Every structure is written in C-alpha cells, then in structure tokens.
From TrEMBL:
SMART domains: HTH_MERR. Keywords: DNA-binding. This is MerR family transcriptional regulator. It holds the Pfam family MerR_1. The keyword Protease does not apply. SUPFAM superfamilies: Putative DNA-binding domain (SSF46955).
Amino acid sequence: MSEPELPDAGPDPADGKDPGAFRTIGEVAKALGIRQHVLRYWEEQFPMLRPLTRAGGRRYYRPEDVALITEIHRLLHKEGFTIKGARQALRGKKGAAAAALPAPEAVPTTPDQESAAPLLTYLQSIRDRLAAALEE
C-alpha cells in the first residue's frame, strides 16, 4: 500500500480551494490520510499548532498550520521521531524552520515565469510565517 502524498501549504487542486483558504479538520485529515482525533491530539502535544476556532469549537487551519501539520507528520511517521523528540526538533529549528521547507527557487516552475512569480512570492510568505510561528 503506498503512502499518501503529503500536501504542502500551496494549492491543492483536489479540493479546488484558494491556496490561502482555511481548511477544516476533516479536509486536513483527509489530505494527510490520518484521523481527525490525531490532529486534535497533536494540538495538545505541539503548542505551536493552534488553529483558529469558531463558535462550537469548529477548527479552521490556516496554510501555515497545514505546513506545520505536514512537518509533524513527516517527523513522526517518516523520520520515526517520538512526540517529545518531534516537539524538541520543531522548537530547536525556530528561525531555521524555513530552511526545512523547499526554497522558492526549488519549486518547479512553468515555462511562463510571469505566472510562477505569484506562487514563489506566496511560498516565501508561508516560509516566513511558519518561521515566525515557531519562534513564539
């Protein structure tokens, strides 16, 4: 059985939403191939993971939250970290957290560089926000 491909904070053509759109817990869980209760548990274990909550406790994940969840998933399920080890790894990265994400110039571009420029700018802003969130 092949492992599901992890989404980044970029556009997800499967859900048809804008890259900057908020995602529900169900959408994020489905994209990662994990259960919703796991995401709720991770919120308890990783203090830097704080989705927006609305009336009734409904969670909305920002693109930087999705990027952080993807990193947590990678550390726990691909790298074999424990929860404590993953938490320490994320805290230890702080300002260097953006270095773990692909550099904007490493993103495959289309032949039309003008259409790729907004995507590269968007990815850089995600990297910056993720690094700032990890420093909190």
